[in-house]
Amino acid sequence: MKKAIIIGATSGIGQEVARLLVRQGWRIGVAGRRKEALRSMQQTNPEQIEIQCLDVTEDNAILHLNRLVDRLGGMDLFFLSSGVGYQNRDLEPEIELNTARTNVEGFTRMVTAAFDYFKKTGGGHIAVISSIAGTKGLGVAPAYSATKRFQNTYIDALAQLSRMQRLNIRFTDIRPGFVATDLLRNGKYPMLMHADEVARHIVRALKHKKRVAVIDGRYSLLVFFWQMIPRWLWERLPIKN
GO MF annotations for this entry (predicted)? Predict the structure, then answer.
């Protein structure tokens, strides 16, 4: 039976991916900050689900990850879904810094721990949820878009490092478009998707071990055109919330 660790699965996309993997017969270890949500999830299928309270911004997060892996009996897939994002037009420093603590510091802490584990055990699959926001800097959410660009580049670097060291580690950088989450509270964004829909696309991408998965096809086209827009024009676009 395949085994997956899912970080940030107490709500949203991570929770939906966890449910789909359980239905497909995986044993999963679910980690997040909310103990009651974790217990509730485990009660749905206690034979297939292990749980662990974990905050990616805390120094003890790797210790808690290792405990969860031990209880699960190993790990074939590491799936990182924990992340935060806020609109911050007023550039409130604490919002920007908190975003970086989770999306950069916490991300790096957990992904390097997974890389080290798979390096020692002979290989595995690391998948992370980043965003199409990493394609261009979004003025309404500076830290969010910048930290997502960091995640894209970091996974690129680890993929190259894995090949340099001749390791059997695969990577999937999952880049959803606009999903109905707290970041998009007002719901005025185009082509807004729901977490269950996104999760189905993600599980298919994981099955085929896609290196980069833009969710979904409409957003692949959008990103293609975004990348063609010159900087001087992008800075003048009337992007509104």
Answer: oxidoreductase activity
Which of 101, 115, 116 has the alpha carbon at shortest distance from 171? Answer: 115
**Tokens 């082509």 found at:** 191
pLDDT in tens, 37-67: 999 999 999 999 999 999 999 999 999 999 9
In this predicted structure, which of 24-33, 120-129, 183-192, 231-240 has the lowest mean pLDDT?
183-192
CA dihedral 4, 150, 204, 34 (to 10 degrees): 50
Architecture of domain 3-236: 3-Layer(aba) Sandwich (3.40)
Give the count of alpha carbons within 13 A of 77, CB side only. Answer: 26
Going 223 to 228 to 231 to 234, the CA torsion angle's sign is: negative
What is the reported pTM? 0.90
Contacts of 174 (CB under 8 A, 6+ apart): 127, 128, 129, 130, 202, 205, 213, 215
